[in-house]
Amino acid sequence: MRGGRAGQATESNRQTPALPGSPGPQGLVAFARRDEPDCQGMSPGRGHLSSLLLAWLAVWFAADHRHAVRAAPTTEDLVPPREGRGHTVFDGRSRWNRVLVVDEGDERSLFFGDTDGDTQSTVSLRDPTTVPMEYIRHAASALAFAPRRRSALVVGLGGGTYPMLLRRACPDMTIDVVELDRLVRRVARDYFGFVEDGKLRVHIADGARFVRRTRQRWDLIFLDAYGAGGIPEPLATDAFFARVARRLADKGLVVANITDTDSGRERAVIARLAKAFPACVLQHTPKSDNIIVVAGASLPKDIAAALTALDREARLPFAVAPMAGLYRSCTD
After folding, report:
1. DSSP symbols for 84-101
2. Residue ranges of the alpha helices (H) in the chain?
3. Domain segments of the chain: what residues?
4. If you ran DSSP here, which 8-state letter would residue 123 be given?
């Protein structure tokens, strides 16, 4: 999941979930201070030796603990919070990502790699049912073109914003999410209000491999998998999009969020999607400049009418009819 930047602000008095995992440097200092004996009444030499011994033990314990945690590649390793924008409430590493959660004002955002990069997900701390991220709202407009909304596959969890929106908008829909990183799933649960239930479940798997091996079909497939470096190459090939097309149910649609620092790569991905699907339209989000592609065997001839009809259903907490003028053919 990848989108625009969150504004700068701080909410220092908000209670956040306790950081799970091993104690960081501050915890080690506190541990040493709690166990340090009272040196009053001891000779200066003995007190000095005791202090040196405690300092040596603290350094040895910290080094040995870090080695033990990082020895297993699947273990999640907490790292010290990074100074910078907002208030960092989580900063951890898995074998795949550095994952950061930052509170700024009344919004909470997810980052991969560094907080200077693109925002992966944002939620409102005041009202989790709102949708602050522009590209999520525009991607949700694709529901207007889906005649059947019984099932969905989401490739890339992020903070879980899109699948949770689908869960609220289409209560009867069965939603499968594929996410490579267990730490991302844990962060989505602990910090972004993501909840799995009987109709919404996460599969920890490689997205390209999952699509290649599954025989299931879905009415809607949303492609939104990003790492710190952009779209993983296996999720942007001709072969992958051809497999996605085969995994669509009759009259099903694929929705893809595309953003890359290389505009040539963006055009190449759009061309591959247009090659894989007979009908293909896209829109540029006005502020974050994401590209949202909607493709399938066919699409409504009157996009404006379809978007207006979705607004009448009142499934979404925002209007999509104003987005009609943004859509154009992928081949234009």
Report:
1. SSSEEEEEEE-SS-EEEE
2. 25-35, 44-71, 134-140, 161-169, 182-191, 207-213, 238-246, 263-276, 303-313
3. 134-329
4. E
- In the chain, the amino acid numbered 220 is L
DSSP state of 11: -
d(CA 103, CA 6): 9
Query: What distance in Å separates the CA atoms of residue 97 and residue 117, rounded to the nearest whole number?
Result: 13
Q: Which of 214, 152, 159, 151 is nearest to 181 (CA)?
A: 159
The amino acid sitting at 91 is: D
Confidence band, pLDDT 50/70/90 cuts, at residue 265:
confident
- For residue range 19-51, list pLDDT tens digits in order: 333 333 333 223 233 333 333 333 344 444 344
pLDDT in tens, 80-139: 444 456 899 999 999 999 999 999 999 999 999 988 888 999 999 999 899 999 999 999
Question: Tens digits of per-residue pLDDT, 184-200?
Answer: 999 999 999 999 999 99
Provide the total of helices (H) and of strands (E) in the chain, helices listed first: 9, 13
Rounded-to-integer distance, Cα 75 and Cα 95, Å: 8
* Residue 261: pLDDT band with limits 50, 70, 90: low
The three-state secondary structure class of 160 is coil
- Distance from C-alpha of 152 to C-alpha of 244, rounded to nearest angstrom: 12
CA 93/CA 83 separation, integer angstroms: 17
Largest CA distance in the chain: 90
Structure-token match 């899109």, residue found? 162
Query: Domain spanning 134-329: which CATH class is it, in words?
Result: alpha beta
d(CA 227, CA 99): 10
CB 242 within 8 A of CB 272: no
Q: What is the pLDDT of residues 152-166, one digit of tens each?
A: 999 999 999 999 999
**Any residues with CB less than 8 A from the CB of 145 and at least 6 apart, and which?**
253, 294, 296, 299, 300, 303, 306
The answer to whether 96 and 229 are in contact (CB under 8 A) is no
CB 131 within 8 A of CB 283: no
User: Residue 174 has which token pair?
Assistant: 């069965």
- Our CA angle for 290, 139, 216, nearest 5°, is 120
